[in-house]
Amino acid sequence: MRRRDAPSIWAAAWADALRAMSLGWELAVPICGGVLLGHVMDRFLHTGSVATVGMLVFGVMVGFYNVGRRIHEEIERDRQEYLNRKRGEDG
């Protein structure tokens, strides 16, 4: 490792850490939003807790979809970086 590569390594490590921390928000926001929207719908429609449970389930599904999509994007980004690095070494 050369001395000039050190800042780029740390910058990449921090960027990866921040992306990993954002996964929690990708899951929590749709769940909380779904519960809140379901609660408001139940209060407005006088349906007990039917909409709250339904929107909770929908929020969980959307949250896991978001996390899966984000993980897929990260894997693809890492794969592209690897291929670019390999091309640079070969050529």
Structure summarized in a few sentences:
With 91 residues, the chain is an all-alpha fold. It has 2 helices and no strands.
Largest sheet: none
Using the alpha-carbon principal axes, give the shape: elongated
Helical content (DSSP H or I, runs of 4+): over 70%
Return the string of H and E elements: HH
Question: In angstroms, what separates the terminal alpha carbons?
Answer: 20 Å
Structural class: mainly alpha
Q: Can you tell me the residue ranges where pLDDT is under 50 for at least 5 consecutive residues?
A: none
Number of domains: 1
Number of helices: 2
Tell me what portion of residues adopts beta-strand conformation: under 5%
Mean pLDDT: 89
Count of distinct strands = 0
Global Rg: 21 Å
Task: Describe the protein's architecture and organization.
The protein is elongated. It has two helices and no strands. It has helices at 6-45, 50-90. With 91 residues, it is mostly helical.
